[in-house]
Amino acid sequence: MPDPGSRPLFRPALADVAPYVPGRPIEDVQRETGVGQVVKLGSNEGPYPPFPAACEAIAAAAATQRLYPDPGAWALRDALSAATGVGADGILVGNGVDSLIKLLCLATLDPGDALVMGWPSFLSWRQGAGIQGATWRPVELRADGGYDLDALAGAVGDDTKLAVVVSPNNPTGQAVTPAALEAFLDRLPDHVLPVLDEAYFEYLPPGAHDGAALVAAGRRLVVMRTFSKAYGLAGLRVGYMMAPPDVVEALGRVRNAFDVNAVAQAAALASLADAPHELPHRIAEVISERARVDVALRGLGYAPLPSAANFVFVRMASPDAAGALNDYLTRQGIIIRPTGPFGAPDGIRITVGAPHENDALLAALRAYSG
Ligand SMILES: Cc1ncc(COP(=O)(O)O)c(C=O)c1O
User: Fold this and answer.
1) Using one digit for the tens of pLDDT, what is the confidence trace for 308-324?
2) Ligand 1 in contact with 347 (CB < 6 A)?
3) Which end of the chain is flanked by fewer CB atoms within 10 Å, N or C?
4) Under CATH, to which class is 52-274 assigned?
5) Mean pLDDT value across residues 89-118
6) What class does CATH assign to 21-49+276-366?
7) Is the peptide bond before 171 cis (omega within 30 degrees of 0)?
8) CA angle 124-93-111, nearest 5°?
């Protein structure tokens, strides 16, 4: 019998898993710098409060919190089904997309299985594969920062179970074209489940890909979307997955029954109902501010990549230069995101904020002599 004391407490796979490095919270930077008015452009939240109808729903839901939430999130799933054309049995609501990523990895990946994805990209996918002790296979982005779908398809092997496309990509901002996406899906062997992470879907230009339409049309594809960005509900943690029903069913075996709290469900439901009224002008404002920030950054000698999301990515001369700029902006009370954990140590990612926040960023950059 082996000595029970020699068994490691923690799974060996975890030794290779780096914890998620989140953007810094406002209070943290306030404490460190003494700056009262900290501007947070580090986590790609939308710059506006939740929709008024969502705020009302949140207040109204407060009084019923004695009860567990609906574990099936049925009202929200039915509303999402009506909005997307995907059957309710092909929709799973989760505690943010982050949680759905982990559940999908938990349901599919064992040691010896592989997840392929572009890189630099969203680190939760890497973490999800790592937690399972599975192989994480990164595929270099194209020089313009976009996913190289030919190379991604080429990296798929017999061991591959998940092939992840993040579009628009976080942190670089590029979206794949619908034609390239469909060609990629056509190339994948049947044993591979493709995933499209559309966390920034609402910011895409007209004519861009629409993962929901592909799932509704019967494509074997998993699509992730969130209420954290354009809907202004990041604090409540609610995202959803659209997928073939067998994938939803499998995740039902590993998820927690009450993953999505009732306040979040109520807020998301109210937001969805008000989306036609509230979303277009918010999106238009972010896109117009993104153009303004892009032009101003270029005027200051930076070279932001073109973005299809609510953030811009800037490659600096070196990781040190990226770190120095981040440190300087933090001292000025402006939080941005160094992109080392996303695989781009020489980059920074700046969320497009409200006009006054973008003004503060640009004023600080004008005064920077790094
Ligand atoms: C590409 C991508 N996927 C998923 C998420 C996670 O979203 P959520 O807030 O729903 O967990 C993010 C958040 O930054 C993201 O950038």
Assistant:
1) 999 999 999 999 999 99
2) no
3) N
4) alpha beta
5) 98
6) alpha beta
7) yes
8) 40
